[in-house]
Each structure stands twice: as structure tokens, then as C-alpha cells.
Amino acid sequence: MENGPFDFRSKTALVTGASSGFGAHFATVLAERGANVVVAARRKQRLDALVARIVDEGGKALAVEADVTRVESVAAMYDAAESAFGTVGIVCNNAGIVESKLAVDVDEAGFDRVLDTNLKGVWAVASEAARRLIAAGRPGSIVNIASVLGLRVSVSQSVYATSKAAVVQLTRSLALEWGRKGIRVNALCPGYFVTDMNRAYLESRHGKAYIAGTPARRCGELDELTWPFLLLAGEAGAFINGAAIPVDGGHHVAGI
């Protein structure tokens, strides 16, 4: 592996929501480029399988069962990461859930569940990372995974879209506060990619018709997220702070 802005050797990275989808992909690409990767989620069995694949391919990884909605669990997650690899310098704040219902059908429990995971969880993970980086006197990069629905809205996604729009604004606020400490905070805003969370819809007749009406007329491929993510996570993006970058085939600028 050659030295360069996309070389993550000597870096320790934490990826939340890593048991599937975006999180598993981001963990894999970081490990492939030399990072020590800590993968966290509530489904420990899936994390163990991911770690096994990374190690089999010559990487270094640790699985930690964690719930981002509980601050004590987040602190324990960082304790485990530091014990294994040292201070976490790169955070992929990816844990998230969806509530696909019309606004009048969303109940209080569903609203709280989405906001607790998608917003409070992002805040808890980012804040704990920053406290530890500041105490260690080290720089860092936090990439919050938002969504095109943090920039636009869609029917039956009022709670999810609200949570992701809040993540975008939180990202900007944290970037402003922590930039002088050498901690960059950016948001990646993916469009529609097929994952376990949305597969049933996107592969349905209605889902295919919806995607056909978007500017790109297709879903994204996970590899199309790789370089935008690595740009924000690593030294190639050293002067990017407080950005919310859509990777959506132009969906966020589609005409009404």
C-alpha cells in the first residue's frame, strides 16, 4: 500500500451501525486501506462475521456490541476501542433506523425511537469522540451519515427526514465549535442505495417506478459512496469542515 491521502495506516476508526449496509461497507473500505477498525452495533453476531472477513483479508478489527441511544453504552464502546487500538481519530456515525408512515399514523413511540437513534445517537457518539480527542490533544474527523431526505422531503418519511435534516444542522454546529480543536465534522447525504433497510420497497413495483423518475433513473452502487466517504474521513479532505455532501445522482436538485 502506498502512502498518500487515502492511506489510513496508523489510524483508528469507529463505525456505528456496522452490522449491515453502509456501515459494513465503510468499515471494510477503511480496513482495506490500513485502518484499525472498531465496528459497533446491537447485532453482535453480524459484527463478528464482519470482523472475521476483515481479519481474513489481512485487516485489523474489533467488534463491540453497543446501543448509541444510551450514553453509558457509547462511553463503554470508546473504552473498548481505546483498549484495543488507542484513541479513535475517525468516526463514521452511521447508526440509523426508519419509520415509513404517513405523519398522522406515526405514534409517539415511533417518533421517539427514530429521533433517539438518528439524532441523539449521532450527538452522543460525536460528543464522546470530541471529548476524548480534545483531552488527548489530537485532531480527528467525524463523518455523520445523513440522507438526501435531510435535504428534501418525501411522503411517508416525515420523521426520518426530520431526523436527518437535524443531523445536517448538528453537523454544521459541531464543525463550528470543534474546528479550532482540529476536529472536522462533515455529513454524507446518500440518495437511494439498496440495503437491508429499504430492499423490499426498492425492489417492489412501486419502488422501481419511483427510482425510474429520479434524475439518475437508478439506485446508487455502494462503491459510489467509497471515495466521497474517504475524502471526508481522511487527509484528502483536510480543509473540508461543516459540509453536507449529497451522493444521490442529482436527486436533491430534481425538479418539482
Q: Could you give the topology of this structure?
A:
Layout: E1 12-16, H1 21-32, E2 36-41, H2 44-56, E3 60-65, H3 71-85, E4 90-93, H4 108-136, E5 140-145, H5 158-178, E6 183-190, H6 199-202, H7 205-212, H8 223-233, E7 244-247
Parallel strand pairs: 1-2, 1-4, 2-3, 4-5, 5-6, 6-7
Helix pairs in contact: 1-8, 3-4, 4-5
Report on this model:
This protein has 256 residues and is of the alpha/beta class. It has one domain: NAD(P)-binding Rossmann-like Domain (Rossmann fold). The protein is 44% helix and 15% strand. It has eight helices and seven strands, in the order βαβαβαβαβαβαααβ. It has a seven-stranded parallel beta sheet, with helices on both faces. α4 links the parallel β4 (90-93) and β5. α3 (71-85) runs parallel beside α4 and α4 (108-136) packs parallel to α5. It starts with 11 loop residues before the first strand and ends in a 9-residue tail after the last strand.
